[in-house]
Specification:
With 108 residues, the chain is an all-alpha fold. The chain has a domain at 59-87. Helices cover 65% and strands 0% of the residues. The chain contains four helices and no strands. It has helices at 10-30, 41-73, 76-86, 101-105. It starts with 9 loop residues before the first helix and ends with a helix. The relative contact order is 0.05.
């Protein structure tokens, strides 16, 4: 006979997430030297582009699953949520002058 698992309470999940976040903060505070590593610009750009591409693929995959779930079930909530994932907050761009515009402003 199968043993039935009892559901986990929301308080237990909240306590586990809190302890995990506190432990990560403690690790970074106690051992700071491994976390202060800088990358040269070429390696950083490759990493950043791969991370952006991965994020884009995940967003489009979520949208595709929502689109076909709507086609199969007619559930408008799935379509709405998958569309919101793609329309979510975009990363902020720097507010300062760009490197292209800087030489143009020094001519005047």
């Amino acid at each position: 006979m199968e043993k039935m698992l009892r559901p986990i309470s929301p308080q237990t999940i909240l306590a586990a997430v809190f302890l995990l976040s506190i432990s990560l903060f403690a690790v970074v505070t106690l051992f700071p030297s491994p976390f202060y590593h800088t990358l040269d610009p070429a390696s950083y750009l490759v990493f950043h582009n791969c991370a952006e591409l991965f994020g884009t693929i995940v967003c489009l995959s979520i949208f595709g699953v929502g689109w076909y779930a709507f086609d199969q079930s007619g559930n408008r909530h799935a379509l709405f949520l998958s569309t919101i994932v793609n329309a979510g907050p975009k990363p902020r761009r720097s507010v300062g002058r760009s490197k292209v515009a800087a030489p143009l402003t020094s001519l005047s």
